[in-house]
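Suppose a colleague, Dr. K., hands you the sequence of a protein chain of 365 amino acids and asks what its three-dimensional shape might be. Before reaching for any lab equipment, you can write down a predicted structure in C-alpha cell form. Begin with the sequence itself:
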Amino acid sequence: MAPVKQTSSTPDWDALPYGGDLFGELHLADTAPAPKPAKPGLFPGLALCGVAAAAAAWLSDHYGFPIILLGLLVGLALNFISADPRTHPGLDFASRTCLRWGIVVLGVQVTFAQIGALGPAPFAALAVVMIVTFFAGVLGARLSGQSPHAGMLAGGATAICGASAALALYGVIGKDRLSQAQFALSLVGISLASAMAMTVYPVLAAQLALSDAQAGFLIGASIHDVAQAIGGGYAFSDAAGAQATIVKLTRVALLAPVVALVSLTIGHGGSGAGQPVWKRLALPWFILAFLGVVTLNSLTGLPEDVTKACLTASKALLLLAVTATAMRSRMDLLLQMGWRATVPVIVASVASLATALAFAVLLID
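The predicted structure, expressed as C-alpha cells, is then:
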C-alpha cells in the first residue's frame, strides 16, 4: 500500500503528543492531582460502640451486673478495634458529646425541694462526708504515687454519684493531665466498689441495729451509684429506701458546685491553673445545662413519663461514653499501672463509709 501523502490539512500524528488519545485520558491522568483519601465519618466508631454498649446492656439485664461496669469491661475487651483510625471520630464523639448530654439529662432526677427535705443538720453532715471523701481520694493518690488529678477524680466520683460524676470531672481535668487508661481503671474501681457496697452496707446496717433513718443516711451518703444507693436503701426497708433516695439525690445536686471548685482550682483541661480566676470559675456548658434542667424540674415538675424517658436516655448516653472511653484506652498503660490505680478509690470508699457511719450514729435519730 502506498504511504499516505502528507498535505497541509493532514496533521503529523507522530509529532503530536498523545496523538492517538482522542479524548485526552492519558494527558488528564498524568496531570490530574492524586485523589485525597476520604475522611472517615462518625458511623464506623459509633456503630461499633453502639454494638458494644448493647451487649453490655443485654448482659446486665440477664445477669444483674452493674451496667456501667459491664460497659467498661466490654469496651476494654474490644480495645483492639481502636487501632483502626477510621473508628476514632465516632469513638471520640461518643466519649465527649454523649457524655455531656448524658450529664445534662441526669438533672431530671433532682429538685431543690428534695434537697430542702433533708434538713439543715443532715445536709451539713452530708457535706462533711463529701469533703472528707474527696480529700481521702487525693491522699490515696499521694500514697500510691499517682498524680493529684487521679485523686480528685476518685474522691469526687466517690463523694457524688460514681461513674456519672467521674465523667463530669474528667471533662474538666482533661486527658492531657490524666490518661484515658488511668481514667478507665478508676471507673472500673468505682463501679466495683459501688456494687460491693450495695451488697454489704445494708447487711452492715442491720448488724449494727441502725434505725431506718440511720440506715438510709448511711447508705445514701456512702454508696457511689444512684441506682445502687436507692436499691441498697430499699433492701434494708421502705423507710430507709426513701431516706437514702433523698440523701443520694442531694449528693447528685452537688455535682455542679464540686465541678466548679475543681475547675477553679486546676483550670480546664489543657489550660492549667495560671488562668485568671474568672476564667477558671467558668463552668463547662454541660454543667450549666445540668443546673438549668434541675431548675426546670424544680419549677414545673416534669411529667412522670418524660422523667422516665429522660432517665433511660441519660443511662444510654453515659453507657456509650463509658464504653467508647474504654475502647480508646491503651492496654499497655492499663497493665503498667496495675493495682496502684485503685488505691485512691479504696481509700475514698473507706473514708466515706466511716464518716457516714459516724454521723448516722451520732446525729440521726
